[in-house]
Amino acid sequence: MNAFAILFFWLSLANASQALGNPANPCQVEIDSSFPAEIKNALLQTLSFIESIQGTQSSPLHQQIFEGPVNGATYCKFIQDRIRGFRYVNFSGDSSLYAENHLGYMLIGDLFLNDTIVDRASSILHEARHSEGWPHANCPIPFLDDAGKPIVGTLSGDSLAGTRSCDTEALSAYGLEVIWARNIEKYCTNCGADVKALAALNEKVLIFRIIDADAKASILQDQ
């Protein structure tokens, strides 16, 4: 199933679950009027997806970060507590950047449209984590996967070696993404197989961004 089909699936689920939240303003976070319609719709769809997630369990590291189980209410509160709202900005000249936390507002650019809804949700949670600090670390040179191939940006395709695109702590922004993905795959009770497959892929790809051996081990052992 492609990304468009996944979007349709989750829009249908959100429509069926309107009693769980406000479909016009999912997660109750301010969205600036400057957004182009297509990007605003993608953001609303992504927040609706986040709000629709259901579950009652989570891993210990997930509990440390989110202070709750795998559940839309948990994630919406995490976002609400850390950002004032979303604003649109044209990130011209940086092909890899589409979300950034700035002065309490999360900035969203055009490349938000180029990713799957699972990746968008993960990135929103990643950027919300940055409101607490958690700066990135420089990736090693060379920066290779288990097969000896260069690790590149998901959207840009550029090598990440030497860039500030890695983390050294388990509870960091990239650590959050890996932990969230694993918990979605394992504990989300209303996520379809396709969504869980995307979460599993994110976990597999993003674990390389954790470059400290002890931090990586603690994430891999988190159940």
Q: How would you explain this protein's 3D organization?
A:
The protein is α/β, with parallel strands linked by helices. It has one domain (3-220). Helix content is 43%, strand content 6%. The chain is built from eight helices and four strands, in the order αβαααβββαααα. The protein has a four-stranded mixed beta sheet with strand order 1-2-4-3, with helices on one face. A hairpin with a 2-residue loop joins β3 and β4. α2 (37-52) packs across α5 (117-129), α5 packs across α6 and α6 packs antiparallel against α7. The model is unreliable at 1-21 and 93-97 (pLDDT under 50).
Q: What structural class is derived from the secondary structure elements?
A: alpha/beta
Shape call: globular
Give the beta-strand count: 4
Q: Give the termini distance in whole angstroms.
A: 28 Å
Summarize the main sheet.
4 strands, mixed
Strand percentage: 5-15%
Summed up, the helix count is 8
Strand line-up across the major sheet = 1-2-4-3
**Rounded mean pLDDT score:** 86
Query: Could you state the order of secondary-structure elements as H and E?
Result: HEHHHEEEHHHH
Low-confidence residue ranges: 1-21, 93-97
